[in-house]
Amino acid sequence: MKASAQDVLTAKIYFAAAFPALRIPLEEDAAQAKKFEKVNAVVEFRAADDANPVACYMVFLTEDMAKQAAHEKRFKVFQGEYPGYIEMKDGSKYDGLKVVKMYFKSISSLLGVFKGSSPVEMLGIVSPLLKNIFNPVTLKFLFLMLTLTKTMPSFNPGTDQPWEQYLKVKLSLFLITRALSTANREGWPEIVDWVKKQPDRTYQFIVGPTLDANGKEIYPEIKSYFRVKQGKTKAGNGERKYPFVLFKFPNPDGCLAVLTGRYEFVEAVGKGAVTIYGAADSYAVSFNDLMTKCQAMLVPPPKPEKK
Asked: In which domain, by residue range, is 111 found?
């Protein structure tokens, strides 16, 4: 079976943007961090295709093992098939990691699981899970991966769920900025045409801290940026000086008002859910439209409410 160019692009965006976002719960969710503190393993994803098979693998290491590895990180995503080892600082190749092999018969089957568009499409994960069910890392990873479902439109936590709001916003901004950069690198016309018309510009997101009822900070600011320069793009965490456009949200709830479609973008500006600084509004609106189109490739649109 040969996947469409759009499906191949979407799979590559998941591998390069969604999976790296898993480091957020690994670093900030105490429960997830504890589950993986003693894990040395690889989780490899592959999807067969007649023309464009895709693959990536995630390396999970303990603190001690990470100090010895060449990449020096406890969690890292690599594109391509797992070669059977990881490079070590001393030049050796370590091949003793447990491997979870999540292999799919087609790219469409893989995307059905990622998007969760329907229960039938989600069945595609059953076969890979059964083949790895006796690997102790499998269920740990499955529950970690389910964290990504918090970026779905159907997950809309309220202000009485401050951790869930914080996590959804941080995951979503991490994912969408890197998805845009990956889409540009892979030649998605929508963004390629948009990027090539711009000089060096940064689109910055700053979300205010989460405060409790007494005004005390319980979760810090969230900062992400998307930079364009001479047809190239870069996404990252943190704050860049002198952004071309700054999207400033008072708190995660204000950001969710835009991300979940509670307000249309222009309406959100009028209600104070987001304040735009810098360039003319037209650039902010066009960038928001681009993000919306990219997001639509990755997650199913919200179901219309029944009247």
From this structure: 5-150
